Amino acid sequence: MDNLEPSVICGEFPLILHNEDYTVWEGHLSVEVNQFKIKIFVPAYPLMTDASFECSPYIKSCLQSHIDNLKKCKTLLSLVYCIIHIVKSKLATEASPMELWNGNTVKLSHAILMELEKSLPKENVIEIKESLKTIKLKYNDIDGNEHFLFFNVTSEYPKGNINILEVDLPLEVVGSLSKVNTIGQLYDLFKQSVDSLLPFWRMCKKLDEKSWVVEPSKPQKRDVYRRILINEYLSIVLTFNPLDLTSYPDVKFLGSMKAVAEGKKKYIRNIEWLQMVVSCAELSDHISGTCPYCGEKLWCQLRKDDK
Question: d(Cα 112, Cα 118) in Å, to the nearest integer?
Fold first, then answer.
């Protein structure tokens, strides 16, 4: 592979962005004062085997009559030059369709590309579409898990709001993500949010492994509750504050009236028993110590009616 070619292309055509393995290139190419959007697929890069492109109907009509020449290009750089030459020759003989050359769109695309390049590594940019306004980013936490953030920006960027389209985080966190102004600020807040939630996700993983969780059937990182089967007549629903694991979870019992009554009675008895265990100390409104059941260290907030 010619390792210099991607750098040369990015230097020559700064409005073009590529994916991690250089198999997809997307952005705008300039022909004198005009610009046009194009997406180039090079599945065997650096080989040009099965290379293809997507563009507007007008640009496609310009290139279609020269398709044989385009197929002869041995490198991606030569293909880009050939595309520009063909479009330039076409525009020399006719007026350019004004709807294709949106100066504001190009300025926005350039601003977004510069922000992405400045704020995060290219391997964390997973997907860009719709004139570079819809973007998917990735972050790997210290536990080795991948987290994805899918969002779009308005035409007024960076003045307009950033709209979160999809992210696997609890709702308690998602709302804060859309309050920032730039992609760089969004990505930094996204990373901070993920890192702050690691203790919660680790706790949920242990809960899923050591108890019979019936809901959600396939827990996602956004889920802050677990319904656990106690027996065939009783289950318990625990809803947590993902940002404060020492706070008391919301506890609900589900089942027959008799099973629920017995379950609540045992539950209260166990809380009282923890308060009397030698290895546990009651500090203000918390119990601190070692759980007599599993040996795990605990720091648990008490409700007023449990004291």
Answer: 10
Distance from CA of residue 81 to its chain's centroid? 34
Q: Give 204-270 as a 3 state SS string.
A: HHHHHHHCCEEECCCCCCCCCEEEEEEECCEEEEEECCCCCCCCCCEEEEEECHHHHHHHHHHHHHH
Long-range contacts of 165-172 (CB under 8 A, 24+ apart): 165/134, 168/220, 168/221, 168/222, 169/193, 169/194, 169/197, 169/221, 169/222, 170/197, 170/221, 170/222, 170/223, 170/224, 170/242, 171/222, 172/224, 172/241, 172/242, 172/243
Mean pLDDT of 103-107: 65
DSSP state of 21: T
Specify whether the CB–CB gap between 161 and 179 falls below 8 A. no
Q: What is the model's pLDDT at position 95?
A: 58
Least reliable range by pLDDT among 35-39, 95-99, 230-234: 95-99
199: left (phi over 0), alpha (psi -120 to 50) or beta: alpha
Q: What is the largest CA-CA distance in the chain?
A: 91
Confidence bin at 104 (pLDDT 50/70/90): low
24 vs 51: CA distance, rounded Å: 10
Q: What is the per-residue pLDDT for 212? A: 93
Nearest CA among 209, 226, 215 for reference residue 294: 209
| Residue reference for tokens 């009616």 | 305
Phi first, then psi: what are they for 194, rounded to 5°? -60, -50
Tokens of 265: 């009675």
